Amino acid sequence: MKKNKTKNKNQTTNKVTKNEIDFSLAYEPSKIQNYIIYIILAVISVSLSMNYIMYASGQNGFLSFPLDDPWIHLTFAKNLVEFGSFSYFKNEMATAGSTSPIYTLFLAIGFIFTKNEMILSYLLGIIFLVCSVFAFYKLSRFEFGKETYFAIGASVIFLSDKWMNFIADSGMETTMYIFMIILGFYFYKKRQAIPLGIMLGLILWGRPDGVAFYAAIVIDYLILIWLSKNTKGEQTNLFSKQDLIKVGITFGILLVIYFAMNLILSGSLLPNTYNAKLAYYSPEFRSRGDFFKFEVWDYFTSGAYGVLMIGFLFSTVKTIFDLFKKKYSSNFSYILFSFLLVFIYWYKLPYAHRFGRYLMPIIPFLILVGLTGFRDASKIIGSAFNSRSFANGFYIIVLLICLSMSVLNYNENKSLYADECKYIYDRQVKAALWINQNTNENDIIGTHDVGAIGFYSGRKIVDVAGLVTPELIDKIHDRNYVKDMEKYMKESGVTYLVFLREWYRVVNQKPLFSTADSLPPEVMEIYKYTPDSTVILSKESNSINMYAENLLQQRQFPQAVNVLNKSIASTPNSSYTYFLLASAYSMTNDAKNMEASLLKAVELYPEFKEAHLQLANYYLKNGFNEKAKFHLDKSLAADPNYKFAKDLEKMLPQDSTKK
Predict the structure, then answer these.
(1) Do the domain assignments include residue 80?
(2) pTM over cut 0.85
(3) Which domain CATH number covers 634?
(4) What is the C-alpha separation between 47 and 188, in angstroms, rounded?
(5) Residue 17 falls within a domain, yes or no?
(6) Residue 528 forms beta bridges with which residues?
(7) Domain check: are 393 and 343 in the same one?
(8) Phi/psi-derived region of residue 107, left when phi > 0, alpha when psi is between -120 and 50, beta in every other case
């Protein structure tokens, strides 16, 4: 009997030991060691970001950004310093056209010390990335507790992230905004009232979608209050009433100033850019399903994100399970913020912008939640195998996999950064420089890409996309918007147009500057604008034409003929539409209609070199050499260096014609 009691006692002891395995790999650095960690993180972060810039500069031979938007901030900042006005041209276009006025103010301060816009933008982006890394490290230490090794590992994965380094060198406010969000969560978790109130205010000054952060912490805090009332005597870490008042007052002051500035500048509570982008990328015209699949799911499951997403989803399920058990999960606020930010864009603006930059603030929390989720999973696995070594070994392997994949993705993204910098420079920057060198100071430019063109051209801009010309925002989706746009440009004295063909197509007129022959796709062109004479295709007609071009590429020629006839019904004076129609007729062996369409095209646009070339080729093949020569001469007169016309000229008989 005594033996059995002893046996039962041992079993009980073993059971307790098994349930109380200490899985932690505790390491709490001293103050000096912590400074060393910060220095190492900063050096690595700066080196990785600078590597992108140096690589792109070496490949391209110049400095640039992979987006046009940075020059919008720079233009406002430069005018603020030079003219004391938050305007887009000297002191004549005061408007709330910056989505991130606080970032514009930082740039303005920077312009006091340097006039080099590229160095200034790179420097700010990298500084805020380093600050983000520091804030992320502090937040990770809070979440991992004494396991500082894992906080360091998470921070290294974050600083080596492909998009964090990409956007740090892109001249945008994104790393500043991410820094604010991370620091906001840190102050919230630490219950630091006044710093939290300041960050709440600055986050809105950083971007309007900061409301996702507000909603996340409000809901999280309400859950905490609910749990505190439902746990028997268990104390929950809540703000005192005095602290909540401090948060409200600090936040309220910054909020009132923000709204007042926008109201004074543009008559609305939010910046022009917010309303303009909501109008242009309306959910009515973009698929919410495609947004979720391609711009959210595919984006956050590629490369290292795919591994982290497993931990993120595990943590999400665990958090929901814990809530049902009336247990609080520290990850709840991060998960909620991520889902709310996606929801806001899915519902209001199903567009993550180029490189997914609107959703990049989710990245640090994908990393943090994913890794803490894997940490929880490793403890469950360790408990199942009754092995501390197994649990920690599993987690360290996961960390190493994520880190190695992150570094690999970083290297792959380096070429993309260089290519995109060249892409923007060859279109927007070169077009801006052409305007600066070939127009006079009194000329006014109509365009939809106002960044580099506004900064480098030195000319007044009429923004037909509404970012800095809010008068046009409400009309952007009108069926006859081009007519309204033309009327506004005429009243504003616009003298030149700078358009990407994919946005607005000018027909029946020779461009003064074009990237058509050297840099497809997305062709940038500059035209002299003559009101009531220059023909801009309606949005409907331009869309139909682009659809027809796709049909022609897919060899669906009869369908192309049908849609192009609809385009002509919409805009009957478009030479380009007739040119496309001729191509479709050619593919269906309808020579008569092909010839008629080409003749109509050159009637509308006598300098249409491609249409003249096609006519010359058609007549040459059918023995009408005199007609062939006539149109070939017209083609070469329009462009003496037109290679295809020169090649055809060699095939033209010199001593015989047939009428």
Answers:
(1) yes
(2) yes
(3) 1.25.40.10
(4) 31
(5) no
(6) 496
(7) yes
(8) alpha
For the stretch 218-246, pLDDT in tens is 999 999 999 888 765 444 689 999 999 99
The owner of tokens 């070469």 is 636
pLDDT band at 270 (very low <50, low <70, confident <90, very high): confident
Give residue 245's domain range.
31-421
> Are 282 and 365 part of one and the same domain?
yes
Residue located via tokens 């956050």:
300
Separation between Cα atoms, residue 547 and residue 252, nearest integer Å: 50
SS3 content of the chain, % helix, strand, coil (to 5): 70, 5, 25
The 8 Å CB, 24+ separation contacts for 141-146 are: 142/186, 142/189, 142/190, 143/330, 143/331, 143/368, 143/372, 144/372, 144/375, 145/24, 146/24, 146/26, 146/27, 146/28
- Contact indicator for 370, 301 with CB cutoff of 8 Å: no
502 and 549: one domain? Answer: no
In a domain, 551, yes or no: yes
The residue from 536, 569, 590 where one domain ends is: 536
Q: Copy the structure tokens of residue 264.
A: 């004074």
What are the distances in angstroms from CA 485 to CA 403, 504, 510, 548? 51, 11, 21, 25
Tokens of 175: 């790393």
* The token pair that represents 447 in the structure block: 């365009």
508 and 426 in a common domain: yes
Gap between the Cα atoms of 93 and 76, Å rounded: 10
Question: Is residue 6 a part of any domain in this protein?
Answer: no
Among candidate residues 630, 501, 515, the one with its CA nearest the CA of residue 576? 501
Domain count, the chain: 3
Nearest to 446 by CA among 496, 373, 382: 496
Count CB atoms within 10 A of the CB of residue 326. Answer: 12
Q: What is the pLDDT of residues 41-83, one digit of tens each?
A: 999 999 999 999 999 999 999 999 999 999 999 999 999 999 9
Q: Please check whether residues 170 and 309 belong to one and the same domain.
A: yes
Maximum separation of any 2 CA atoms in the chain, in Å: 126
Q: Which of 421, 444, 477 is the last residue of a domain?
A: 421
